[in-house]
């Protein structure tokens, strides 16, 4: 099995994640799309590390996981707050900062 | 003018060489300017504590300047005629690259003459103002401005360079503006001040350009430097000298209210009467004559410019006299007379070496008798409830004896009554006007002679209408003599009006001035085209006729209280020969049209242009702002497209 298949999988996962972010309105689902994109990138990193025989990509993947965990905490907190104040988790309703 | 005495250049060169560094009292000549300037600063900065004593301080400081001037004169007389001119360097004023100009004072016969005239008459008028302005709430400010004027005028006449002279020139203009508009709560007075200032501005513009032309031509702006350079260049620089001469004449016309810039002087009478006496009769308005005489080496080599000076003088002296005949306002009649007399001086100054000394001589005597008469007019107004219409005066001689007597002296002096001041000085100018070849002596001589008769008529008219004939007072008039602080200066000036001419004539004033004014001695070689006794006799005859006519019409006959319609000439003269209308038509209307055109161009061109740019930016930004629609997902799409684009670009570049 060629390592390129992992790369293709990563591309497919990233595309699904991006489509989710662009298409869905629910903030939680959008969030999940973002997570999917992050994990697709992680997969790509790990695959490339394997191809090059170095550990750099794996290390970066670990960093991405840590940052993603922190981001989840902050992001979920924001979503919770918006939901509490507006009774809605739709990203289209959170448009107060536009001109 | 066409016949310059050949000895002149050497005479002036000798005078220049004689400008020695200051010694003795001349070393502190700066006190002349510093004392009144300090007074002005003190009175303007320290306000409340000086409300009462301020006027007295100002008067004392002005007398202090007079004392310094008197000491300078005594010292100067003690030296030999060649060594009388002294130069005092004060400080390095404009060190600019290779050009360096020091501020300094030129103390010579001419400037000392002016210093004494200004400080003596000025100090007397300070004393007079103590009485005249006693009840004015702003008298501290008034005296501060008076001191400022004296300082600026002294700077003007003692400056050693045309640039420093210009500083004084502007200073007197400022003081004049402030004092004409002293009662500026009255809108016509305030606009009279503006009018004087603007008319003066036009003249100042000429003087400024003249100084620049001097610098461009000779590379120097000091008085002695320009004198020497003009003498050395002689007729080779004729064109440039003519240009400078005309520009200086423009400056002189503005300051001295000469045709065509004369219209401000009548309105300048809005100022308090002591101001009219000091600034608009005795001193500031004669600055133009001073300028022409000071710059005489320029005019000696620019006969066309000198002829223009003479013509301007002739026009103004005739115009002023005719206007003087038609005015019922006592101060405006005196103002017209001032214009006319300064016209005499300008004419004399334009005649060349034969006339310079006579111009200064008449200037000094005129300073006395005209100031005296203005103070007399102020005294009359003081007694008549500040009214100025002579048609409501009449028969005041009984009630105001001192004013009447002093005015009598001034009146006799100005009409040239034999052996009074005006007789000596004006007769000399008439004689000088008859000197020359061709048509000029006849035109200028006969003009000055006829106007002498006209002068006698209008001054007698003024005198008789005010002090003699029937009493035409209003019902609540109670004329009374003015306090001593006002009458004493009037008496002193009256004594000067009577005696000064004779004293100066006997004391050799004209020869004394000769080293500065350049060869008055040369005048002896020029004979008038008519014998001198004929000129004098003819002038006296015309004067007698003028007085007689005025006596018949304004003393013996009843003067109507309301002015009759009069002939077209009277109506024209009463309106200053429509000078205001001419100015309005020639300057104000085109000026307003220009302003309107510029406003239109600004509104429709510049404004529309900038507004258009603004609107374009606003429209573009509005359209751009629509992109920021508040939908997170569209932002995300934008970001994604951006990343894809960047990646595509990188891929394209790399492959």
Describe this structure in words.
The complex is a heterodimer of chains A (99) and B (655). With 99 residues, chain A is mainly α. Chain A has a domain at 26-91: Helix Hairpins (Orthogonal Bundle). Chain A has 3 helices and no strands. The longest helix of chain A has 31 residues, at 56-86. The radius of gyration of chain A is 16 Å and the shape is elongated. The termini of chain A are far apart. The model of chain A has no long low-confidence stretch (mean pLDDT 90). Chain B has 655 residues and is mainly alpha-helical. Chain B has 2 domains: 8-574, no CATH class; 582-654. Chain B has a 3-stranded mixed beta sheet. In chain B, helix 3 runs parallel beside helix 5. Chain B starts with 7 loop residues before the first helix and ends with a helix. Mean pLDDT of chain B is 86; it is low at 1-18. The interface between A and B is medium-sized, with 14 and 10 residues.
- Give the beta-strand count of chain B: 3
- Provide a count of the helices of chain B: 25
Helical percentage of chain A:
over 70%
Percent of residues in β-strands of chain B = under 5%
* Structural class computed from helices and strand pairing of chain B: mainly alpha
Helix percent of chain B reads: over 70%
Q: Mind telling me the CATH class of the domain at 26-91 in chain A? A: Mainly Alpha
Strand content of chain A: under 5%
Low-confidence segments of chain A: none
Report the major sheet of chain A: none
The total of beta strands of chain A comes to 0
Oligomeric composition of the shown chains: heterodimer
SS-based structural class of chain A?
mainly alpha
Shape of chain B: globular
Task: Encode the helix/strand succession of chain B as letters.
Answer: HEHHEEHHHHHHHHHHHHHHHHHHHHHH
**C-alpha Rg of chain B (nearest Å):** 30 Å
Taken from the alpha-carbon principal axes, the silhouette of chain A is elongated
């Amino acid at each position: 099995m060629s390592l390129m298949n992992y790369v293709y999988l990563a591309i497919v996962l990233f595309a699904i994640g991006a489509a989710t972010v662009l298409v869905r309105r629910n903030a939680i689902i959008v969030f999940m799309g973002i997570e999917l994109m992050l994990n697709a990138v992680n997969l790509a990193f790990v695959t490339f590390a394997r191809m090059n025989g170095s550990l750099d990509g794996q290390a970066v993947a670990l960093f991405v996981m840590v940052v993603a965990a922190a981001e989840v905490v902050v992001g979920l907190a924001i979503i919770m707050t918006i939901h509490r104040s507006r009774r809605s988790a739709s990203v289209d309703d959170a448009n107060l900062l536009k001109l | 003018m066409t016949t310059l005495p050949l000895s002149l250049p050497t005479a002036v060169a000798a005078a220049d060489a004689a400008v020695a560094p200051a010694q003795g009292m001349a070393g502190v000549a700066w006190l002349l300017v510093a004392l009144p300037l300090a007074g002005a600063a003190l009175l303007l900065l320290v306000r409340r504590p000086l409300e009462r004593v301020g006027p007295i301080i100002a008067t004392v400081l002005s007398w202090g300047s007079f004392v310094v001037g008197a000491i300078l004169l005594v010292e100067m007389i003690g030296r030999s005629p060649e060594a009388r001119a002294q130069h005092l360097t004060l400080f390095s004023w404009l060190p600019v690259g290779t050009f360096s100009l020091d501020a300094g004072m030129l103390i010579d016969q001419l400037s000392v003459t002016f210093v004494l005239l200004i400080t003596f008459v000025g100090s007397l008028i300070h004393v007079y103002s103590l009485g005249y302005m006693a009840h004015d709430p702003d008298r501290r400010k008034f005296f501060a401005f008076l001191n400022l004027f004296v300082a600026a005028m002294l700077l003007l006449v003692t400056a050693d360079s045309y640039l420093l002279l210009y500083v004084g020139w502007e200073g007197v203009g400022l003081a004049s503006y402030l004092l004409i508009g002293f009662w500026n709560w009255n809108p016509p007075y305030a606009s009279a001040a503006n009018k004087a200032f603007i008319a003066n501005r036009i003249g100042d513009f000429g003087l400024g350009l003249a100084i620049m032309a001097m610098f461009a031509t000779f590379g120097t702006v000091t008085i002695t430097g320009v004198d020497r350079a003009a003498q050395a260049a002689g007729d080779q620089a004729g064109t440039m000298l003519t240009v400078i001469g005309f520009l200086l004449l423009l400056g002189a016309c503005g300051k001295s209210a000469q045709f065509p810039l004369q219209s401000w002087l009548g309105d300048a009478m809005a100022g308090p009467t002591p101001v009219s006496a000091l600034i608009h009769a005795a001193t500031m308005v004669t600055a133009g004559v001073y300028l022409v005489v000071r710059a005489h080496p320029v005019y000696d080599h620019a006969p066309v410019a000198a002829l223009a000076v003479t013509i301007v003088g002739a026009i103004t002296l005739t115009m002023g006299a005719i206007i003087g005949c038609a005015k019922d306002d006592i101060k405006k009649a005196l103002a017209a007379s001032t214009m006319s007399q300064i016209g005499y001086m300008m004419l004399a100054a334009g005649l060349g070496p034969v006339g310079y000394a006579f111009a200064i001589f008449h200037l000094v005597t005129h300073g006395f008798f005209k100031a005296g008469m203005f103070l007399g007019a102020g005294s009359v107004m003081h007694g008549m409830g500040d009214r100025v219409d002579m048609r409501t005066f009449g028969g005041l001689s009984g009630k105001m004896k001192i004013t009447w007597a002093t005015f009598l002296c001034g009146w006799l002096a100005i009409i040239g009554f034999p052996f009074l001041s005006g007789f000596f000085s004006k007769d000399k100018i008439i004689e000088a006007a008859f000197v020359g070849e061709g048509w000029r002596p006849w035109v200028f001589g006969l003009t000055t002679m006829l106007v002498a008769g006209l002068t006698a008529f209008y001054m007698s008219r003024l005198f008789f209408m005010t002090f003699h004939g029937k009493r035409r007072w209003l019902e609540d008039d109670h004329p009374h003599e003015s306090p001593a602080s006002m009458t004493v200066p009037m008496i002193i000036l009256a004594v000067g009006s009577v005696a000064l001419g004779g004293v100066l004539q006997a004391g050799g004033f004209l020869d004394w001035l000769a080293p500065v004014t350049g060869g008055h001695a040369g005048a002896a070689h020029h004979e008038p085209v008519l014998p001198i006794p004929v000129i004098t006799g003819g002038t006296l005859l015309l004067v007698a006729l003028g007085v007689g006519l005025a006596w018949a019409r304004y003393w013996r006959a009843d003067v109507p209280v309301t002015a009759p319609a009069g002939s077209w000439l009277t109506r024209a003269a009463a309106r200053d020969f429509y000078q205001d209308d001419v100015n309005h038509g020639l300057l104000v209307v085109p000026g307003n049209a220009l302003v309107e055109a510029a406003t239109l161009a600004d509104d429709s061109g510049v404004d529309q242009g900038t507004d258009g740019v603004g609107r374009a930016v606003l429209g573009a930004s509005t359209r751009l702002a629509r992109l920021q629609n508040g939908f997170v997902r569209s932002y995300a799409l934008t970001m994604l497209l951006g990343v894809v684009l960047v990646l595509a670009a990188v891929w394209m570049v790399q492959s």
